[in-house]
Amino acid sequence: MSDVVIIGGGIVGLACAYECAKAGASVTLLEYGKTGMQATNAAAGMLAPLVEAHEPGPMFDIGAQALAEFPALVAALESQAGFDIELQLDGILKVAFTNDQLHELRERRSRLASAGHQLELLDAAQCHEAEPRISDRIIGALYSPSEGSVSNQLLALALERAAILHGATIQQRAAVTGFRTSRERVTSVRTAEADVACDTVVIAAGARSGQIAAKLPHRPPKTEDRRPPLPVHPIRGQMIALGGMSTPIRSIVWGPDGYLVPRANGIVFAGATVEDVGFRRRTTQAGLQQMRSMANALVPQLAAAKHLFDWAGLRPATPDGLPMIGPVPEWPNVVAATGHYRNGVLLGPITGRLVADGIVHRDWSNVPADFSPSRFS
Ligand SMILES: Cc1cc2nc3c(=O)[nH]c(=O)nc-3n(C[C@H](O)[C@H](O)[C@H](O)COP(=O)(O)OP(=O)(O)OC[C@H]3O[C@@H](n4cnc5c(N)ncnc54)[C@H](O)[C@@H]3O)c2cc1C
Questions:
Q1: Is residue 83 one of the residues assigned to a domain?
Q2: Backbone angles phi and psi of 327, in degrees to 5
Q3: Among residues 317, 337, 358, which one ends one of the domains?
Q4: Nearest CA to ligand 1 atom 15
């Protein structure tokens, strides 16, 4: 019997495992394959709530808070896990090729300033001073000095190590196939091997979260218009790793059609497509070509870089683009922690903390109402 059973070992499930175990709960995490190998492995690792946000609101607020919490979290995890997680808050350059794009960046800058975040607007000369190899066609940029990236793979691994240190059990290759329920409560989570009894279950299965939630029995039985309790759908993203040249950029360069993320080992990640193609998780020639052209347009020298490897992942998306964090309607001991779409690396750790507060301390007050799974019921 576990206090908390978590379904899914991506960054969100691992963060929930770490925070719940740290708060004193007994935790079992069940992972279909190998932890951290789905969307979490596919991500670019950017921590970019300021340059990514379109409007002020709960998504912006939680993103800014998550970013602010990263240095302390990473320091704590590094000391527990014993390795460097490659947190690099070296700044992001969001560039414009046209006057319209520059105008949009100016507006974004004033919106951010009114929320208390001072970003700098650079002209073409200042852009080239900051990043000498970017295209001559770039006419200006918004520079955000406090954002950056982390190794998403190492962060996931560190969360897993730290969760285990706090007593969590992580089961790999433990595909969840269903639930045992009694009235409105889940009493155990089923895998092919065993039933794992629990007080509370957390659905953190990324793009598959809706499919898992659909295994909860219908209540009331089989109404005609019953919507899935967690409407999560996959949105594919394809990326390329470019290398073979001395570090062409120092900080993240983000253009209108994609971004370039320099990693600590000198490789540059170019991404990412945004495609609604169901659960097809393979790369395509068209998608990779699109990313290659985007990279060359931002930094022409990258045309000579080697295409080292490529990959695709499925972002867990929701109908309104906001995550779902909190109890699932009609199932008081089932908690959703999913739907983080393009921001799961940034928001995974803070989600873990909010879920632990909710489950262990029975305090959901810090979760914005807009993130409640009940908004779709
Ligand atoms: C190309 C790309 C680039 C991205 N870049 C960024 C970025 O720069 N910054 C950022 O913040 N975010 C980024 N994201 C988004 C981020 O990767 C996701 O939001 C995040 O990884 C979601 O984490 P998760 O734990 O919810 O899902 P996942 O990492 O997909 O984990 C879900 C886990 O659940 C498991 N599972 C599924 N079904 C079952 C089952 N039946 N039983 C047990 N386990 C099951 C899966 O095997 C998987 O391991 C990017 C995503 C993509 C695809």
A1: no
A2: -60, 145
A3: 317
A4: 342
Where do we find the tokens 């070296």?
90
Ligand 1 neighbour 338 (Cβ under 6 A) = yes
| Listed residue (335, 250, 257) closest to 292, CA to CA | 257
pLDDT of residue 149: 96
Q: How many A from CA of 315 to the centre of ligand 1? A: 6
Residues 273 and 298 in one domain: yes
Please state, as a whole number, how many other Cβ atoms lie within 10 Å of the Cβ of residue 180: 15
CA 129 distance to own-chain centroid: 32
Which domain does 43 fall in, by range?
2-73+152-231+319-376
How many CB atoms neighbour CB 125 within 10 A? 9
Cα–ligand 1 centroid distance for 316 (angstroms)? 7
pLDDT per residue over 75-110, tens digit each?
999 999 999 999 999 999 999 999 999 999 999 999
346 within ligand 1 shell (Cβ under 6 A) = yes
347 CA from centroid of ligand 1 (Å): 11
What would the two tokens of residue 276 be?
């609604």
Pairing state between β 92-96 and 252-255 = parallel
**What residue owns the CA closest to ligand 1's atom 47?**
32
* CB-CB neighbours of 130 under 10 Å: 18
Three-state SS at 317: strand
**pTM, 2 dp:** 0.96
